[in-house]
Design goal:
By secondary structure, this protein is α/β, with parallel strands linked by helices. It contains ten helices and 22 strands. The chain has an eight-stranded mixed β-sheet, sandwiched between helices. Strands 1-5-6-4-3-2 form a six-stranded mixed β-sheet, with no helix packed on it. Strand 12 and strand 13 form a beta hairpin. The longest helix is centred in the first third of the chain and has 18 residues. It is flat and about 65 Å long.
Length: 428
Amino acid sequence: MPRATIESLDREGRGVARRDGKAVFVEGGLTGETVEYSILRNKPSFEIGRVETVLEPSAERVDPRCRFFGICGGCAMQHLDARAQVAAKQRVLEDALWHVGRVRPETMLRAIYGDAWEYRHRARLSVRNVPKKGGVLVGFHERKSSYVADMTGCEVLPAPVARLLPELRTLVGGLSIRDRLPQIEVAVGDRVTVLVLRVLEAPTATDGDALRRFAEASGVQLWLQPGGPATAAPFWPKDASALDYVLPDFGVRIGFLPTDFTQVNHGVNRVLVRRAMTLLDPRPSERVGDFFCGLGNFTLPIARLGADVTGFEGNAGLIERARANARANGLECDFRAIDLFDAAACAQLPAFDKALLDPPRDGAIELVKSFATHPPRTIVYVSCDPATLARDAGVLVQTQGYRLVAAGAVNMFPHTAHVESIALLERG
């Protein structure tokens, strides 16, 4: 069995080593460790392997808390100390900024992190009826597989939700539509938990009785979704409180639907918004553009601080709910539906003193290019992909006269290799 010494971690949380002139990516290996590994894939320029024996363990290696770790694909780094995970994500961010965008921040911000367990307030659970494994399975996919992990608990879901996994298996197993229910979406708010059952066939009257009993016994609200996200509707109880979360630093409560995009980690999101407002420093009389604004997660705090803010978002439904959130919080905000991936649409945007960007993984390249015409003097960029942040920052620095003043990682997804980040760019 081959042996290797791990030199670093890659963007997927795998150990990186070199052997016989080839890069070796070792699942389960940590920096500084000497390991024996089995080869999963062998190519002329690289190998992918999996740790079989740790000969010299890292001081940062810990025992995974979840008994399903290694089987379930929801987590990749439970074997690494939580603070060491944050440090590794900072290095991934720094590497991406330099190797992709050829930029380095003047200052590395202290990473944002919070509780490492029971943090996941949004999740998409797969459902499969597998008679060979005893019936219905409910959980995340197995690692690098389309199979559903045989799990009866989860350490990153809130405990009240994790405790429902065995009960959900029993519930779905007793339904006539057990083979027509492929997914359960979890959405946890401050006052209510919603489970959205994706149903490819309408439940029978007997099924409905079982669903109502489950909702009442478990204290959750059940929704049914027969088609796309817009078809999701409350099933039982009909009069439950609406989903929402609070940003206490700004006296803002944000309502959302269970199929809306929201940050999965409410605690880290609160710190992220606070950091973004500190960097952006919106002031009365300033015009601020909040791009990819969603439900108003950043827009409403900007308004609370007195700036004249306009939120831009491609999803018209989110825009309507953002407007409702502004009204409910007594705030004056302008919201506009616009395709921020369209160069022509971005070219028509008005000028702003400052801008906040929170794009999806594809980044904001067309928007960033449009700033050449009306450049805001300050940009705060919140990113869920270091590579696209690096690309966009490179354009701003190298072609538009911006400085990358600061950047830092945001550990929105502890125990995964997913890296979110925040960056400050200033012009002149």
